[in-house]
């Protein structure tokens, strides 16, 4: 399955702390730190696009070690993306907060001082937390159902969808780590069984539906499912003929503007892996 055909200049990868400091968020800016090909980060970009929230994105290089720098660790001590930095809240802090934050500014680099000024700023990491924050903070363009009962199902599906990434990732890591002649057939069979069981569950969830909950409108749970399925397809997973509902779901969402606009840049210009392609 091919990537959506969108003419878009790929973002420049940020690979040093110096670049991070230079690109640090200005007080009025909303900035998202992400990585090309990360399903967790991709769904944040989709959500921002769906809500039409202006933002600047900073695409980091995974291999550069920039996520381990002091600057990025100040944003997320777990040293991973995505991270959302919101514009400054203009309400004044208390005197104690002023003293603490002013001290931090004095000790920080010039770029960090843009971020850690004596005002309130919201920084959110972990993709699920970011999605929930965006939905609560910006309800004008909802990405979740209004009904509490349907909202509960949507939240369940959103968190369930990460099981796909777990079992697919486990299989991909094993297949990449060991050449064919070094693999344990029983382990491979068991890992494939986990993947197939998980995909079959989602195939059943889509029975009679274009999307997980709504006939015409995808929600955050759909975008989460999509990004995880897209990663599996990128790794060579075949949906056609095996999981027809998932295949149609995937194709349907590939055409959505928010997904076309945020398609992982390096996926447009390189071929995916064949590690999950059965011969």
TrEMBL record:
Superkingdom, according to UniProt? Eukaryota
Domain annotation GST C-terminal: ranges: 147-279
Q: Which protein are we looking at?
A: Glutathione transferase
Residues of the GST N-terminal domain: 28-142
Q: Which InterPro entries match?
A: Glutathione-S-Trfase_C-like (IPR010987), Glutathione-S-Trfase_C_sf (IPR036282), Glutathione_S-Trfase (IPR040079), Glutathione_S-Trfase_N (IPR004045), Thioredoxin-like_sf (IPR036249)
The record, for PANTHER family, names: GLUTATHIONE S-TRANSFERASE GSTA (PTHR44051:SF8), GLUTATHIONE S-TRANSFERASE-RELATED (PTHR44051)
Signal peptide range in chain numbering: none
Q: Which family does it belong to?
A: Belongs to the GST superfamily.
């Amino acid at each position: 399955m091919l990537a959506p055909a969108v003419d878009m200049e790929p973002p420049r990868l940020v690979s040093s702390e110096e670049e991070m400091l230079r690109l640090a968020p200005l007080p009025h800016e909303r900035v998202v730190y992400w990585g090309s090909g990360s399903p967790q980060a991709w769904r944040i970009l989709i959500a921002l696009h769906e809500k039409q929230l202006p933002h600047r994105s900073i695409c980091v290089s995974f291999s550069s070690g920039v996520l381990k720098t002091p600057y990025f660790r100040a944003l997320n001590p777990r040293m991973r993306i995505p991270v959302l930095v919101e514009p400054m809240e203009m309400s004044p802090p208390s005197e104690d907060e002023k003293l603490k934050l002013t001290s931090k500014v004095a000790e920080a680099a010039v770029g960090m001082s843009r971020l850690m000024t004596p005002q309130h700023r919201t920084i959110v990491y972990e993709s699920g937390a970011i999605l929930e924050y965006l939905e609560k903070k910006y309800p004008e363009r909802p990405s979740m159902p209004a009904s509490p009962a349907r909202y509960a199902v949507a939240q369940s599906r959103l968190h369930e969808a990460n099981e796909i990434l777990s079992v697919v990732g486990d299989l991909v890591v094993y297949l990449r780590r060991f050449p064919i002649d070094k693999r344990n057939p029983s382990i491979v069979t068991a890992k494939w069984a986990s993947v197939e069981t998980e995909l079959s569950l989602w195939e059943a969830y889509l029975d009679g539906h274009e999307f997980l909950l709504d006939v015409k409108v995808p929600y955050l749970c759909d975008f989460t499912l999509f990004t995880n399925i897209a990663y599996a397809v990128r790794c060579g997973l075949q949906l056609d003929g095996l999981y027809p509902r998932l295949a149609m779901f995937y194709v349907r969402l590939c055409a959505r503007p928010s997904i076309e606009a945020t398609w992982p840049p390096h996926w447009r210009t390189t071929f995916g892996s064949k590690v999950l392609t059965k011969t």
